Each structure stands twice: as C-alpha cells, then as structure tokens.
Amino acid sequence: MSTQPLPLAGVTVVTVEQAVAAPFATRQLADLGARVVKIERPDGGDFARGYDTAARGLASHFVWCNRGKESVAVDLKDPRGLALVRRMVAGADVFVQNLAQGAAARLGLDAATLCAAHPWLIAVDVSGYGAEGPYAHKRAYDMLVQCEAGLVSVTGTPGQPVKSGIPAADIAAGMYAFSGVLAALVRRGTTGRGGPVEVSLLDSLAEWMGHPLHHGMHGGAAPARTGLAHAVIAPYDAYPTTDGLVLLSVQNDREWRRLAERVLGRPELADDPAFATNTARVAGRAATDGVVAAALAPLTAAEALARLDAAGIACARLNSVAELADHPQLTARDRWREVESPVGPLRALLPPIVFPDAPEPRMDRIPALGQDTDEVLAELGVPGAEVKELRDAGVIA
User: How many CB atoms lie within 10 A of CB 345?
Assistant: First the structure.
C-alpha cells in the first residue's frame, strides 16, 4: 500500500522543447508526478511528431518521450503568444528549453534571464555544445554528437565504425537535465532559491566515454573496435550454438576456472599459462574464443545458457527488439502498462525508478497538438473572447 505521494507531486514544469533530449528529461519529471506543460508551435508542433508513423500513426520518438504532458500550442514569434508563455513560466517551478542556440535568449526565455526575474525558478538550458566556444552555434543532431564525442570511433567492428542504435547523446543529455532538475529542487529546498542549469549533449556523451577516454589518455591508445567483444576482457563475446548466438562474460580468473571445469569440459585450461589469466586470454584472444566456441557449438542456446547459469557465468541471449517486447522478465515483473493517446491505448514500459511506498509512476496520455491550450489559458485567466481572437489570428491552436 502506498504511504507517500510521488516525489514530484505539486511541481509544475513549463517546457519549450523538441526532438528527444529535453522531452526525454521532462517525461521523467512527469512520470514522477510533476505537471508538465509542453509549449509547441501551432503549425505542426514538436517536429518529432513527424519523424515516422510507426506507433499506429504516431511517431515512435514522440510516443516514447511525451506521455503525461499537456500540450499548449502557442506561436512564440508573436508578442501575444510570448507574453502568454511568460505568464505560464512565472507560475512554474521549472522551465526547460532546447531551442537552437541563441533562440531562447532572443525571446528572453534563456535560463539566466528567467532566473533573474524569478529567483524561485529552476531554468534549464539544454544545448548541443554549450553556450560558448567555437562549436556553440553548430547544429547538434544526435549522430553528429556521437561522432564528435568519439563514440562512433569505438563502436562497431575493426573494419567498420557505427553509430549507436539508440540516440545516445540525446538520452545522456536528457538524463543529466533530469538529474540536474532534481538536484536544483533539493538545493532550492534548503536555500529558497532556484537558479540556472546548463546541460550540453557533447558534455553528457563525453562523460559517458569515460572508459575509452581514460584508457586512451593514460594508456596510450583508445580501445579498439571489437564488435560484441570487450577490448580488455576475454572471453567476452557472442558465440554460436545450433539455433542462435549466446553471449557470455568472464570477469576474473576464478570465473574462468569455473567455465573451464563446468562448461568447457577442459579443467586443464584453468591452470594453463596461455589461459589462466585475463591478460593471457586477451593476448591469445583467438585461441580463447576458439575453445569457448568449440564447446558451445554442439549445444542449443537453451542448453548453453543452462550450463552457463549453473556454473555461475554471466550470460545472455542476443534478443531482437520483438523479443524484448515479450521478455519474460519484464512480463513476470508486470512492467507493461497501456497509455492513452490520440489513436487509442498504446503499450509502454513503466519507468525504471521504482518507489515501493508511493503510487505507481504516472503513465498519463500522450497529448494531441494543442489538446490543453484552452484549459491552460483559462487557468491563466484569459477570457474566452480573447482565446477565440488569438486562435482566429493563428497565435494559438
């Protein structure tokens, strides 16, 4: 039974956002109970709405990043629309924006300007490369930042660098913006003041590059691209069975002994100088992978996983996206819910943060463009006649 509210209940967030990074951050806030009012352009809204139509006619990115929000369609280029948004911000706890570099400042919606006017406010600027420096005004789409941050250089096979299959730079920035808001709320609780928060995609992904970065800076060379293998651990790769690939990881020499004795059926390899230490196994990676592959090849994937599990060796299947959607662990833990949307209920995962003593995270609807414009303007005290006039003029939708 829940005994406490969701941790962000009572917090109001206004956000001028698009694409993935800022919307992903504010969706986390909505999941944990915050009210999130999303400001969108009247002529199409967040451009992520148009990325694809995979979710029964809706864009998959938008469905993922925008549940639990209210959509208000306002033209920020019209002084009347901008004035409305400023009134919304004046009553908010948090403001988030990820407009093109310099655009928020021209509108007076940058964090420094807003926090000077509203000392209680926490205002977050999410940018591609930061507010200063030679890259400040470069366009910063996810794949480009993955390249600038070096992620692509260490991802892929020896002959082919590849980008991550998920928008890693956007997700990294979104999670740092989310945690930055949480930290600022804690600070405001002790000091009574909000303040600006800055997050960039490059800074965020550069932090996630910590292992290869430190390996390269201090070890003389960045880790090589090794596909599914690990650059400095062996065996750590995918191995074929009779009906699919099985992945395993041996993290230390004790685990290697168990693998040799209980899975490979080669107990002598536990003390063989060519295999007994991780350094030796990495130096002779081809031989290491060869003995593992030979032992697993006659087995089915299920048989191989059972042996590995029984020996206490970390292992996994190479699942497809469809198999993830039907993953037995997610099903057993009741991690799926349905979220309302303009096209009806859509299946979605509960967020990863669990508060056992509070209600479930909010899994509210995915909004249609401008679905909440009238309600939010009514809360601001805008008369109905003025709302009609603004809509007729194209200032709102």
Answer: 12
| Residues classed as catalytic | 170
Q: How far apart are CA 247 and CA 317, in angstroms?
A: 6
pLDDT, tens digit (0-9, with 9 covering 90-100), for 363-387: 999 999 999 999 999 999 999 999 9
Strands 12-16 and 195-200: unpaired
CA 315 → CA 18, 101, 147, 169, 231, distances in Å? 38, 44, 30, 28, 18
Residue 48's pLDDT band, with cuts at 50, 70 and 90, is: very high
- One-letter amino acid of 116: A
The DSSP bridge partners found for residue 199 are: 126
The Cα-based distances of 388 to 42, 78, 309 in angstroms read 14, 16, 65
**183 contacts: CB under 8 Å, gap ≥ 6:** none
Place 152 in a pLDDT band, splitting at 50, 70 and 90. very high
Cα–Cα distance, 46 to 20 (Å, whole number): 10
For the cut 70, the answer to whether the pLDDT of residue 131 exceeds it is yes
Exposure class string for 127-165: b at 16+ Cβ within 10 A, else e? bbbbbeeebeeeebebebbbebbbbbbbbeeeeeeebbe
Do the beta carbons of residue 11 and residue 29 sit within 8 Å?
Answer: yes
Give the angle subtended at the CA of 151 by the CAs of 147 and 153, to the nearest 5°: 80
Please give the Cα distance from 322 to 136 (Å, whole number): 39
Other CB atoms within 10 Å distance of the CB of residue 209: 20
Average pLDDT, the chain: 95
Radius of gyration, CA atoms only, the chain: 25
2 pLDDT band, cuts 50/70/90, is low
pLDDT digits (tens, 9 = 90+) for 306-342: 999 999 999 999 999 999 999 999 999 999 999 999 9
Q: E strand or H helix at 304, and its extent?
A: helix 301-310
| The token pair that represents 233 in the structure block | 């651990």
pLDDT digits (tens, 9 = 90+) for 272-310: 999 999 999 999 999 999 999 999 999 999 999 999 999
In 3D space, the residue among 113, 106, 112, 47 whose CA is nearest the CA of residue 77 turns out to be: 106
What single-letter amino acid sits at 117? A
